[in-house]
Amino acid sequence: MNNTTLAPAGAKRSLLPLLFFVALFLGTGLYLQSEGVAYAFYQLPGHVAIIPALILAIWLHKAPLQQSIDVMIKGAGNSNIITMCIIYLLAGAFASVATATGGVDAAVNAGLSLVPAPWLLPGLFVIAALISTAMGTSMGTIGALAPIAVGLSNQAGLDQALVAGVLLSGAMFGDNLSIISDTTIASTRTQGAKMADKFRENIKIALPAAALTLLLYIVLATDGAPVQIDTVNWSGVMPYAAILLLAVMGLNVFIVLLLGILLAALQGTFFADYAIANLGKDIASGFASVQEIFLLAMLVSALSEFIKQQGGLQWIAGKIQQAASSLKLAGNKAQQLAIAALAFSSNLCIANNTVAIVLTGEISKTLAQQHQITPKRSASLLDIFACISQGLVPYGAQALLLGASFGISPWQVVTQSYYCLILLLVAVFTILLKPAKPMVTAATPV
C-alpha cells in the first residue's frame, strides 16, 4: 500500500493514537492536580501512558498483527532514535560520574564564590545558567541549587518567588543551549544538524535574551547578607569546561561524552576521595537515570511511524503550510513560525520539552526541507520554543520542584520566569527580522 495516497479521513484517523496519548497523559495530570496530588503530571509516566496509544495504533492499522508489530519495531529502531538514545546513556553516565566525584558541588561553589552579596539575583541567574549549560539538565541544576537558594533568600530577605524564578530562568537557559541536554540531542538528531552548528545558531538568540534578563535582575537586585560557601574545588569544574569546549570545537559527541566521563573519574581519583572501583556502578546509575526518556523516545518514534505510514504527518504538514502561507510573510519566516508554534503547543500538552521535540521533529524537518530552512535553524527553533513553553507551564517538573522547594505555588514560580518570556520575544523578533539563509545541502548528523 502506498500510504502517502491515503484519503484525508484515513490520514486524520491515524492521529487518534497521538491525541489519545496526549489526552491520557494530560487528563490524568489535571485530574490528580485537582485532587491535590504532589507532582500530579508525573504520577502516570509518559512511557507508560503511551502503551494504550500504541495498542490503539496497532488496531487502527488494520493489518495482520505481525505486520503491525513490524511497523512498531521499525519506528522504535529508527537509526536517529537509537543514536539519540545512546547519547542519552552517555550523557546520563557523565552526569552521574561528575556528581559522584564532586563536580556539581564544585561548580556551584565556584559560582557562588564569585557573587558579591548585593548581586545575589543576577549572580544566581549566571550560576544557574552556567551549571545547567555544563550539566545539560535543568532539573539537575534546580536540584543542586534550590536548597542553597532557599537558605540564601531567607538570609538576604529576598522574595522567594522571585528567587525561584531566577533559578528557573537560569536552568532553562542551559537546558536549551547545552550540547549534552536531551533537548539538544533530540533536536539535532531529528533535524540532521551538527551539535556545534546548532549551538552557534542557538546562542545568537539565547545570549541576547540572557543579557536582557541579566540587566533586569541587576535592576531588581538589592543589598543582601554575605554569602557563605564551602571551599572551592576548581579541579571539579574541569570536566564540565572540557566537554563544553570540545563540543563547541565540533568534536564528535560520542567522543566528547566518553572523554567527559574519563576526565570526571580521573579528577575525582587524583583530586578528591573518589574510589575508582565505583566507576562501573556510577555509570550504571547514570544509565538508569535516563531510562524513562530512553524508553519514551523509542515508543514515541514507534507511534510516529504508524502516523507517518498512514499519511498523518503529511496531512499535518499540509495544514501547517496552509496556515503559514496565509500569513503573507516574506521568505520562509512563516514556516519558521510554524515550527516554533508546533514545538511550543506540543509542549503545552505534554509538559516535557524533549518529548515535544521528538513528536514534532518529523513534521518540522519536512517543513524545513521544503522551505529552505537550514537544519541548524530548525533544530534551534524546536529546542528554543519547546524550552520556552516548558519554563512557562506550572505543571512542568521544573516549576513543581521549585514550588515544593520554596514552599510556594508553581504558578508563582512561572510568573517570575522572566528569561523564558524575554527569550520568546527575542526569538520571534529574530525570525521576523533575520530569516535563515537558504539551505544548500543538509548538514551531516553527528
UniProtKB/TrEMBL annotation:
Its main location: membrane. One of its GO terms (cellular component) is plasma membrane. Keywords: Antiport, Cell membrane, Membrane, Transmembrane, Transmembrane helix, Transport. InterPro entries: Na/H_Antiport_NhaC-like_C, NhaC_Na-H+_Antiporter. One of its GO terms (molecular function) is antiporter activity. The keyword Protein biosynthesis does not apply. It comes from the Bacteria. Residues 64-220 form the Na+/H+ antiporter NhaC-like C-terminal domain. It is found in: Cell membrane. The keyword Zinc-finger does not apply. The chain crosses the membrane at residues 15-33, 39-60, 81-104, 203-220, 240-266, 287-307, 337-360, 381-404, 416-433. This is Na+/H+ antiporter NhaC. It comes from Rheinheimera pacifica. The lineage of its organism: Bacteria, Pseudomonadati, Pseudomonadota, Gammaproteobacteria, Chromatiales.
